[in-house]
Amino acid sequence: MGCSGCRVRFNFGKVLSKVSVFFTMVLIFTYFFYCLTGLCESAPRALYNQQALDYDILDDHRRILDDLRPSPRLLPDASSYWNRTATADAEQVDAPGQQHQQQPVSDNGIPVSNTFGTKRFPQAIIIGVKKGGTRALLEFLRIHPDVRAVGAEPHFFDRFYDKGLEWYRNLMPRTLDGQITMEKTPSYFVTKEAPSRVCTMNCQTKLIVVVRDPVTRAVSDYTQTLSKNPGLPSFQSLALKNSSTGLIDTTWSAVRIGLYAKHLENWLQYFPLSHFLFVSGERLVSDPAGEMGRVQDFLGLKRVVSEKHFYFNQTKGFPCLKKPEGSSRPRCLGKSKGRPHPQISSKVLQRLRDFYRPFNHRFYQMSGQDFGWD
């Protein structure tokens, strides 16, 4: 009886040993299979590779990098973080409706999915105006860790609306809870169909309009076009239908854009005034921190962007961002910003000021702000 009990205990011990070896082999096999297929590359790594970040000033064909620093709440791998920051500015439409894509890859060349955050429709859009300071405003906003924005102008609500809302959402960067998705396309403000289309997406969207003295804005607009087309007729011949009568040609886009009151009337058919913030392009230059405070309040953000982020560039004549830690140079807008304006007859400029005056006063009443252009 005693020996029988010994045999039972001996056999049980052998079975337990074999089971242990079997499960150990299964775990080892599973581990090697997991790594050989490259799946372990998708696991989050360190916060980011410091050497991968090279903050620099980009030329006219690139946009300024996405953030001065990553959000402390994001913990992506180094390759996906670089893809998020660098390609946000290089991201543009290669052909009508075709977006340039760059997928992050791991060290062994296997694609890595960026699963951090969600692509959402923008909660706020900078809708205008061209040559008002919209690029500067967007770059200043992108310092904020709770703002994520598309680098290039999507032009969805004026050019590519037929591609559908899902196509538009796929252009957006990924955001976490508490972060705001934004985009800017200045031509929306002057596009007749844009207000109804934006409202179809979301009638609660916050709308930011950067406005500037319409006469100065028209000259700046003309200067930009002239740099691309040196054979352009004179400003006077384009602005005036007849030089002897001084009649203004409102069909010229550089003049038409400055009729802010007319464009705002179109938007107010779909959005209440409380959904708009009108940013002064002049104050964005003279007091960037003050205007950015208003913008952050409007978006419901903590006031992170402040005086400490700016310095005034005497050469360009507008504020730039101080250089971030680890960068060799400060961040300033490209060569296309701050071009010298051509000499234009003071009589032509005065005629334009007289023309815009009633429209400006109407805009002051509608917006509840006196921008002091007269």
From TrEMBL:
Q: How does it sit in the membrane?
A: Single-pass type II membrane protein
The principal localisation class reads: membrane
Which residues does the annotation say bind 3'-phosphoadenylyl sulfate?
Answer: K131, G132, G133, T134, R135, R212, S220, K337, G338, R339, P340, H341
Q: Which InterPro entries match?
A: NST/OST (IPR037359), P-loop_NTPase (IPR027417), Sulfotransferase_dom (IPR000863)
* Residues annotated as transmembrane: 15-34
Which Pfam families does the annotation name?
Answer: Sulfotransfer_1 (PF00685)
Enzyme category, top tier:
transferase
- Record localization: Endomembrane system; Golgi apparatus membrane
Q: Name one GO molecular function term.
A: [heparan sulfate]-glucosamine 3-sulfotransferase activity
Q: Does the keyword Glycoprotein apply?
A: yes
Annotated coiled-coil positions are none
Q: Which family does it belong to?
A: Belongs to the sulfotransferase 1 family.
The protein's name is: Sulfotransferase
Can you name the source organism? Larimichthys crocea
The root-end lineage is: Eukaryota, Metazoa, Chordata, Craniata, Vertebrata
